[in-house]
Amino acid sequence: xxxxxxxxxxxxxxxxxxxxxxxxxxxxxxxxxxxxxxxxxxxxxxxxxxxxxxxxxxxxxxxxxxxxxxxxxxxxxxxxxxxxxxxxxxxxxxxxxxxxxxxxxxxxxxxxxxxxxxxxxxxxxxxxxxxxxxxxxxxxxxxxxxxxxxxxxxxxxxxxxxxxxxxxxxxxxxxxxxxxxxxxxxxxxxxxxxxxxxxxxxxxxxxxxxxxxxxxxxxxxxxxxxxxxxxxxxxxxxxxxxxxxxxxxxxxxxxxxxxxxxxxxxxxxxxxxxxxxxxxxxxxxxxxxxxxxxxxxxxxxxxxxxxxxxxxxxxxxxxxxxxxxxxxxxxxxxxxx
Length: 337
Prior knowledge:
Elements: E1 2-7, H1 17-24, E2 35-40, H2 47-54, E3 59-61, H3 72-77, E4 83-85, H4 96-101, E5 105-107, H5 113-129, H6 131-140, E6 166-170, H7 174-185, E7 189-193, E8 207-208, H8 212-218, E9 221-224, H9 238-242, E10 248-252, H10 261-270, E11 273-278, E12 298-300, H11 309-327
Parallel strand pairs: 1-2, 1-3, 3-4, 4-5, 6-7, 6-9, 7-8, 9-10, 10-11, 11-12
């Protein structure tokens, strides 16, 4: 079996391309794999170069899953392809029934549940305490001046205690559950909304709401962990925001398209939403601008919640483990069921 790997470019400071390549070489030790091709470039390949690289490979790793790639013309060009793996948690809409008809298995890699949940919680903590702002004050005030002495033990932003507050988690998958456990450790009440009810004992500390409206009306903080689908696109809109508590803090480490950005900007300006903490935007980067870039009380980072050294290496290891499971006849993390 021939395997082709699209190795994503390095966009962090604590890992090298050689380290990722060495990790991917683990595929060579998988029984039945005769050849491993690894494409490590500074940018995602064009469709033409991608086609040339894949060639007659039977397994493909590291591609972005969506309708621009997973379609009839692409698969017609690679009739031997039977296994496709994305290195991400999420994916865009594609014709799953068509891929099943062709006998293709497509998997995702749930490598960063704790990593992304940690980042979501960091955004939550930042919205409550604004540590960087207070750090800057201490370092820029001239403390040799006696009149500045009262400025030292002083908060210039509201300090919000998490203990006893309610965190609403929309989407109780692996990341949402990891975040719930962190919130529980801080003494928060956790309420969730998901189309799937979780019945395993480990979910017992989470109150699972029957309706999204119930979560919206009761949560002091809301964190989004839903996939981007036609049904979830702009699900956070003006009508939904009106159902939230006044002054709610909204966190999004999932997909930017879940939010109507103008509606959120308006809600931030009016104070209906007290703060927004976002690691994702609808357009990344925002080449055409976004009303959120100038909205008050809005923290935006550049889709970096997943970018730890541990998570990147874990993603490769898990992708290989998923492939071994597929070869053994028991595929897991399948997204085109």
